[in-house]
Amino acid sequence: SDHMENIYGYLMKYTNLVTGWQYRFFVLNNDAGLLEYFVNEQSRHLKPRGTLQLAGAVISPSDEDSHTFTVNAASGEQYKLRATDAKERQHWVSRLQICTQHHTEAIGKNNPPLKSRSFSLASQGSANSPGVQRRPSQNAVSFFSVGHHRLPTGKRVPIMQPDHLVDVREMMSQAEGQQRDLIRSIECLPVSGHLTSLDQDLLMLKATSMATMNCLNDCFHILQLQHASQQKGSLPAGTTISWLEPKISLANHFKNGAAQNFPAEINKPASVREEQSTAEPCQLTREPEEINPDEELEDICDNKEDDLGAVEEQRSVILHLLSQLKLGMDLTRVVLPTFILEKRSLLEMYADFMSHPDLFIAITNGTTPEERMIRFVEYYLTSFHEGRKGAIAKKPYNPIIGETFHCSWRMPKSGVATDAGSNFSAHSPSEQVTLSKDTESQTELDYYTVKFVAEQVSHHPPVSGFYAECVERKMCVNAHVWTKSKFLGMSIGVTMIGEGLLSLLEHGEEYTFSLPCAYARSILTVPWVELGGKVNINCVKTGYSASINFHTKPFYGGKLHRVTGEVKQNMTNTVVCRVQGEWNSVLEFTYSNGETKYVDLTKLSVTRKRVRPLEKQGPFESRKLWQHVTESLRDGDIDKATEHKRALEERQRNEERLRAETETPWCTKYFLKEGDGWVYHKPLWKAVSAAQTQQTDIN
Fold first, then answer.
1. Residue 524 C-beta-side C-alpha neighbours within 13 Å
2. Torsion over CA of 366, 371, 375 and 380, rounded to 10 degrees?
3. What pLDDT does residue 66 have?
4. Torsion sign, CA atoms 368, 371, 372, 373
């Protein structure tokens, strides 16, 4: 009762994507059990701008940072709030939790629970039996009978001992089994009739039971932490025990009636135990590793993606997922079902954008700035077809922080487009510099080498950095991308936030570019992918720029995957090239001289990337890291793939929690933070600049 005091003060409140965070004056009314907010303190005497009933609410500190927390009301309304520091957040969270508990218990006293009833599904008989027929007044929830049990009054709950925790774990396992039986019983119902497996009330019951088990798992974890702290002494000052992410992912119920096991640690496959016990990445050597392209072999792995089809088997999973999402909701932290995954990491997907290295190298072979810009646009537009593996609506693995991917391409010099009359082997004396011994030995080879490296440099937000270079042609590209997913109703949108930089060192030119948004459409029928949005390519030195529009399909009529664009000289505002077509089919380039060129993407030759064999890869290289998930998906064993995926994600969460508790910053391996972006630690432009400086000193 000493803590049942009214508190007030300013907090930041998240409104929406447009408005963002705004300062508001909040008042905790303990007597009424209300959290109210006003525009400012001066308007406190006016009607509140918003009010939340705290009875039955859940107050959750966020794991995004140490300042944010959420208030989830029983009505479904949510406030996302941010304090000025961790201490103020703890103060608000503690007071809100005390008030919530008080008013929730008061409601419980005024509304005693129903008499104990058995937990069973109504008997299922023939379609005409009374157990199956549903009266109009009977809702889905009343179709089930749920047991309620009350603790004996007047008895204090004893402090948990280790053997009691074992008993709790056994009871939790029984509850998990009952919850699985409930899910199976719902999903075994017919898809049509009076009571179906797609009934909204039943879907809500599934979601509620899953949320309950997640909450119980979190509470059990807190008990374990408290017991561990009693053995080691008190928790360090300032330590808070936060709610964890869901322990039961949606993928556990991806099959109708499929039984899921929650085995003890000793019963887990060795590969899963290995994934969970791998050492903390930041404790491994974080020194950049120089990958020798000669160790890489032509990729023989052909992970063809099967079409998802009409997703009939997974319809209940999709509907369940939709029941938990809201329009505009950020999907970064949502656990998506495993069956929608591609058999590659997002980092490898970025590498597949380079599957036409001949067009990439040919950019620098353009004899004029205009031609080089047009060639870059041509390469840019042809990269998405292979990078997206066509229009199959599947999602690559979310990279683990510290994950890397390396590969290279070898392109015969005769296969790279040049222009008649140009001699690209002749350079001025200042350009005839030796970059490395490797370069010296490669001058006699009949192929160019393009090397690629990508790294997941951040987890929240999820940011990837990637870099590619062709030393022989003195060109490189550096980019960082933050993938931000949003739920849009019957589709999912992915915004690619970031910027890329192409450097043509022979010409002293830099081209900045952005990436389009991607959309997964018709997620309840036949999912498909389209690109959308406007991207810009710009070269400040030459004054040439390109504007490209990826058009999303209109509601009625219109073509799929349509793209249009133009290249122009900014100083004269003259359009020198126009392009139109489909980014996964045929593109038409029309030049200022009236000539037209067609590029059929389906007939373009794809150069296979070269990767090191798995046995030579490090533990955090993409294919080695995800190998068990990929093998399980390839074998069609979704259960096993889900288990391996969950082990990797749980390990990442544990490591992140440990770094937060010890205040240990994450150490990247190949990319360095510069301003708002990430730059490769040894970009080619630095090597060329250093070599030219050395040559000048010699002269």
1. 10
2. 130
3. 83
4. positive
Q: What is the pLDDT of residues 169-216, one digit of tens each?
A: 778 888 888 888 888 888 788 867 778 777 777 777 877 787 788 778
Helix (H, G, I), strand (E, B) or coil at 443: coil
Partners of residue 579 on adjacent β-strands: 565, 589
Would the CA dihedral through 314, 319, 321, 322 be positive or negative? positive
CA dihedral 487, 491, 492, 498 (to 10 degrees): -110
Strand partners for 72: 58, 78
pTM: 0.57
Residue type, 637: D
Summarised one tens digit per residue, pLDDT across range 581-600 is 998 889 999 999 889 999 99
Using an 8 Å Cβ cutoff, are 27 and 44 in contact?
Answer: yes
Q: Which segments of 47-85 does DSSP mark as H helices, in order?
A: none
Residue 426 CB neighbours (<10 A): 8
Dihedral of CA 384/385/391/396: which sign?
A: negative
Spell out the residues 6+ positions from residue 208 whose beta carbon is closer than 8 angstroms to its own: none
Six token digits for residue 230: 């009693």
At 195, the amino acid letter reads L
What is the token pair recorded at 507? Answer: 């010409």
Q: Which one-letter amino acid corresponds to residue 544? A: Y
Q: Which 8-state DSSP code applies to residue 666?
A: P
Rounded to the nearest 10 degrees, the angle between the axes of helix 638-662 and helix 627-634 is: 160
**Bond from prior residue into 461 cis (ω within 30 degrees of 0):** yes
End-to-end CA distance of the chain: 84
What Rg value do the Cα atoms of the chain yield, rounded?
30
Which strands make up the sheet holding 7-14, listed edge to edge? 50-53, 34-38, 21-29, 7-14, 78-82, 68-72, 58-61
Nearest 5°: the CA angle 157, 165, 61 is: 80
**207: closest CA among 298, 123, 289, 325?**
325
Residue 130 carries which DSSP code? Answer: T
pLDDT in tens, 340-357: 677 889 899 899 888 899
Both tokens of residue 339?
A: 């069956």
Domains of the chain: 7-108 (2.30.29.30), 295-369+385-415+446-531+617-687 (no CATH)
CA gap 313, 197 in Å, rounded: 12
Specify the 3-state DSSP secondary structure of 477: strand
Element housing 385 (H / E): helix 369-387
365 in Cβ contact with 419 (< 8 Å): yes
Separation between Cα atoms, residue 546 and residue 540, nearest integer Å: 12
Q: 465: part of which helix (H) or strand (E)?
A: strand 463-470
DSSP notation for 255-320: STT-------GGGS-HHHHHHHHSPPGGGS--S-----GGG-EE-----PPPP-TT--TTHHHHHH
- Identify residue 149 by its one-letter amino acid code: H
Q: Which two tokens stand for residue 499?
A: 């910027």
The predicted structure's pLDDT at residue 321 = 58
